[in-house]
Design goal:
There is one protein chain. The protein is of the alpha/beta class and 489 residues long. Helix content is 36%, strand content 21%. The chain is built from 14 helices and 17 strands. A nine-stranded mixed β-sheet has the order 16-15-14-13-7-12-11-8-17. A six-stranded parallel β-sheet has the order 3-2-1-4-5-6, with helices on both faces. A two-stranded antiparallel ribbon has the order 9-10. Strand 4, helix 5 and strand 5 form a beta-alpha-beta unit. The two termini are 45 Å apart. The structure holds 6-O-phosphono-beta-D-glucopyranose. The site of 6-O-phosphono-beta-D-glucopyranose (BG6) has 6 residues, from helix 9. 6-O-phosphono-beta-D-glucopyranose (BG6) binds next to helix 9. It catalyses: D-glucose 6-phosphate + NADP(+) = 6-phospho-D-glucono-1,5-lactone + NADPH + H(+). This is Glucose-6-phosphate 1-dehydrogenase. Its EC number is 1.1.1.49. It comes from Paenibacillus albidus. Belongs to the glucose-6-phosphate dehydrogenase family.
Length: 489
């Protein structure tokens, strides 16, 4: 990987401390961050380099996945960090920044490769990108890249407007849109799982799959993010991005060794093939919910509208479930069920594939007694792959029983975190696990009728008790089958 300068906007923010510094450190320790390197942290407050480095150090102690930090390595790592004060709206601050970047490049002999990471609110994306362009920071002899995080707009129109202005300063191939779900190791494993296992590859189609269920349930509530969350809700916060990305990763089919362009084109095909929703029919296919008081993990918790900072009459959804169809020969007539919510019974992100009973087997006298074959892919907090099979139970007079063939991934402190994978990929210019504009635009396009139906009162909110599996309507959406594993936890 070529050496570069890492310019971090929002260097004193929460994301930088919790995720970005630990990720950079882990890459450094693993030899994946080329040395020498220059990280220039930016913020509005005046800070000396020493104070900034002390903050970075503190964040590593608090949030690194590694139990023991080597002090010599830490010292060397921190030498790469310097701080500059910057007000995003002040063009002269970018001129000073350019000078600082160049001084470090000259001192360390770095090529003019510049990574701009915008760990700031979305309202700052446009002015920062424009100022990078205007100041000359973006005129490099090497590469320049921009990393941004969701939200990419609030709806189709604003997302398009944002993209138009960003692409005035950066080309599409220079923009790396982080969706941290795409950095999760088990999500990155999905493609390999399919193409490296002929058994799964053969079964990955509507002839054998009865339905697909994608769940991201959380036990946390709105926490300290009332201001942001009450204006977003689960549809914008989780569904339009993480959940639809999980769907694309599950449904696409690729030959081994595909290029990032092929991956993107297959993902685009999936989201483009989603059957569009008609605003008037949204309520038949989508359920919105909001949590009421209840008990989560043995603790009594307040309802959403009693949370600090939330409007008492808020109609924002904290849960959303939907039934989707992919109009494609391989997926025709396979319902895809997706749900995500806060204050649910357990923290679990998982994909469950329910297989059909494809053969009308009149010799099978136990037919109808057994549970379907399931493939359960657990993404977080545990990483596991389980295949549920049926077998005879010798202790129960040969009756059928379900058994689980299971693979559990290693301890989580050994597994690179999402941000580590993603920053590493961005530094080497591999865009496979980033959201391309086409995917973002098509996702907004699919979601838009739901936004409109909600605003026009066509999709009423359903209450659900904190600590439950969501509103009753979510189970009803499945019409006949069930959300697998709900009854087990
Ligand atoms: C974020 C959302 O993108 O993802 C949060 O803004 C949510 O509301 C979080 O809690 C969930 O991420 P994870 O990795 O804990 O599943």
């Amino acid at each position: 990987m070529e050496a570069s300068t890492f310019v971090l906007f929002g260097a004193t923010g929460d994301l930088a401390k919790r995720k970005i510094y630990p990720a950079l450190y882990n890459l450094y320790v693993d030899g994946k961050f080329s040395t020498p390197f220059s990280v220039i942290g930016l913020g509005r407050r005046e800070l000396s380099n020493e104070t900034f480095r002390a903050q970075v150090l503190q964040s590593l102690h608090s949030f690194s996945r590694r139990a023991a930090l080597d002090s010599l390595q830490l010292q060397a790592f921190l030498q790469g960090f310097e701080y500059s004060v910057l007000d995003v709206g002040h063009p002269e601050d970018y001129t000073k920044l350019l000078k600082h970047v160049r001084e470090r490049e000259a001192l360390l002999g770095l090529p003019e490769n510049r990574m701009f990471y915008l760990s700031v609110g979305p309202e700052f994306f446009e002015p920062i990108a424009a100022n990078i362009q205007a100041s000359g920071l973006g005129d490099t002899l090497g590469w320049k890249r921009l990393i941004i995080e969701k939200p990419f707009g609030r709806d189709l129109k604003s997302a398009r407007a944002l993209n138009t202005s960003l692409t005035e300063a950066f080309k599409e191939e220079e923009i790396f849109r982080i969706d941290h779900y795409l950095g999760k190791p088990m999500v990155q494993n999905l493609e390999v799982l399919k193409y490296s296992n002929p058994v799964l590859r053969a079964l990955w189609q509507n002839r054998y799959i009865a339905n697909v269920q994608i769940t991201a349930s959380e036990t946390v509530g709105v926490e300290e993010r009332a201001g942001y969350y009450d204006k977003s809700g689960a549809l914008r916060d989780m569904f339009q991005n993480h959940m639809l990305q999980l769907l694309m990763m599950t449904a696409m089919q690729l030959p081994k060794g595909s290029t990032p362009e092929e991956v993107r084109s297959k993902k685009k095909h999936v989201v483009k093939s989603l059957r569009p929703l008609i605003k008037e029919d949204v309520a038949l296919n989508v359920v919105r919910g909001q949590y009421t008081p209840g008990e989560v993990e043995g603790r009594a918790v307040a309802g959403y509208t009693s949370e600090p900072g939330i409007d008492r009459s808020s109609q924002t959804e904290t849960f959303i479930a939907a039934r989707l169809w992919i109009d494609d020969p391989l997926w025709n007539e396979v319902p895809i069920y997706i749900r995500t919510g806060k204050r649910m019974k357990q923290k679990s992100t998982r994909i469950v594939i329910e297989f059909k009973e494809p053969f009308n087997d009149s010799h099978n006298k136990n037919k109808g007694d057994h549970t379907p074959n399931l493939l359960i892919i657990e993404i977080s907090p545990d990483e596991a792959i389980t295949l549920q099979l049926n077998t005879k139970d010798p202790q129960q007079h040969g009756e059928l029983t379900s058994v689980h063939a299971n693979y559990q991934s290693g301890s989580s402190s050994d597994v690179p975190e999402a941000y580590e994978n993603l920053i590493f990929d961005a530094l080497r210019g591999d865009a496979t696990f980033f959201a391309h504009w086409d995917e973002v635009e098509l996702s907004w396009q699919w979601v838009q009728p739901i936004l409109e139906a909600s605003e026009e009162g066509l999709l009423p909110l359903q209450a659900y008790r904190s600590g439950s599996h969501g509103p009753d309507g979510s189970a009803a959406l499945l019409g006949g089958t069930e959300w697998w594993l709900d009854s087990e936890d």
